[in-house]
Amino acid sequence: MASAKEWYRQPTWTPDAEAEFWRRWQRARPFNRPQYLIIQAITLTASAERRDHQVALSLLDRFFAEFPDERGHLASAWLHRGVLLESMGDIDGAIDCYFKADEHEHAMPHVIVHAPLVALYTVAIHGRRDLYDRALACYDRRVGGDTGGFPILNFNLQTALAFILSDRGDHAGAAECATRALAHASATRSGFSRHPTVGLVGNVDHQIKRRLESITSPSWQRSAADVVSRLIKGAMKKKAKQQSD
Question: Is the pTM of this model over 0.70?
Fold first, then answer.
């Protein structure tokens, strides 16, 4: 169980932890109750137990139901609901939550949960081509080119751009972004003197890393260029044939 001072950070939802949480939550000041629901849900997100994830979802749902006007917490609540759904394999549901988080973050400029970047990264790594333009527009509207400087944020941005550009046939641009992403992944210092290890990338999913490496490989770029060249030559031959006919 969590310490008595942090009763709203129960690491797992045992019967004792549940009883302790709700007993103290009922006694808490009303204006603090919304954030305690969210903090507890976020804490359970890190649990390895699937049941804890279900509890986290129920806590967030209670927040949405009882505190719909808590604008300062809505972006975080929707973002972490998306994280939970993504961990359960509900990618469409997760992306929808990330876009909702973006809407609330946009409405409250002082609230920063990086929802546009999370939405863009998720859309890109899952190849949701139908949502590329929407995700890019959300990111550009809210953030533009500034990620705050942390390697993990820069890695996510450059990875998303690399995958999208690759999908759209811009192989040179994709290779540049993939190279930057891999550089950010290998960073050992954040660049912030007082917090040198905050925001580092850590372990990269091996499939994502392999895809980034394949995008940067000269053989991949040559084969991509060959494909484009053949397409252009084919189109020119077709046009010449049509003109001769």
Answer: yes
Give residue-wise pLDDT tens across range 147-162: 667 899 999 999 999 9
Task: Please state, in angstroms and rounded to a whole number, the distance separating the CA atoms of residues 36 and 134.
Answer: 33
What is the reported pLDDT for 236? 75
Helix, strand, coil in percent for the chain, rounding step 5: 75, 0, 25
Domain segments of the chain as ranges? 148-245
Sort residue 28 into left (φ over 0), alpha (ψ -120 to 50) or beta: beta
Q: What is the pLDDT of residues 49-70, one digit of tens each?
A: 999 999 999 999 999 999 999 9
User: What end-to-end distance do the CA atoms of the chain give, in Å?
Assistant: 81
CA dihedral 163, 168, 171, 172 (to 10 degrees): -100
**d(C-alpha 4, C-alpha 166), whole Å:** 51
Confidence class for position 173, pLDDT limits 50, 70, 90: very high
Yes or no: say if 128 and 99 are a contact pair by the CB < 8 Å rule. no
Residue with tokens 């973050």: 105
Q: At what angle do helices 171-185 and 206-216 cross, to 10 degrees?
A: 130
